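Table S2 (continued). Query chain:
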Amino acid sequence: MGSIVGGLPDRLRRLGFRSGVTDADGTATDSQEFAATARRAAKGLARRGMRPDDVVGVLAPVGTERLTACYATMGAGGRALPLELASDLETLIDVLAATDARIILATAPLALIALELAERSRVRQVISFGTVPETTPFDELLQRADDGYDPSHGLFSNGIVSYRSAADGVHTTLHGHIELLDRFRRFDADLALTPSDTVLLEPGAPESVRAVLAAVALWNGSSLVSTDGVEEAAVREVAAEVGATVRCDATPMRVSPDP
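Corresponding output:
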């Protein structure tokens, strides 16, 4: 399979899983709709000129849109570069330059920042989740094509790019297909998720961990809930409110439904 969510829409339909993917603001998406959107967006990125191994910046808070952008990029054979909202503008420009990113997927509130980053880098296209002047609406990626082309077939050099700032510049690390699949299998075996589980996605988790855990949860029919809380007390409150059975900070862990 070409990515950690390869085959997910078909599995969800076949097994009838209809779990929720819920953002910090309470906005919920059906898992089948979420998976189908990521697949269609992957085809849309390929139609708009994205090629295997291309790096795509993702400027979005932890939640549905960030996951959609990452999965769509990997599904098209690309390398998702989730940009940390805490990073300063110069660091973001440096990492976009270091990875030769040409596309940024951004939420509407962050689209103007994405456009500024494009002005100061080699990024040539900003795709926004919403209608923002000078950007391409994400919905355009979802327009159906009848060519039968599935960009996820046979593309195994995709992955997630992480970065860190150091005295000598920005350092990047590619968490590639093999690493992500190995982590997928490990989380799947260790957590034994079921449709009765609720997985809480937290900003403190490494992106490669959070994206894989979310994929494992979706694959097993579990619900996903994102939180924007960074303080432990606030996160525990959200976990209790949604009945989270699995939390994801540095590593995924099972918790009591009532922390």
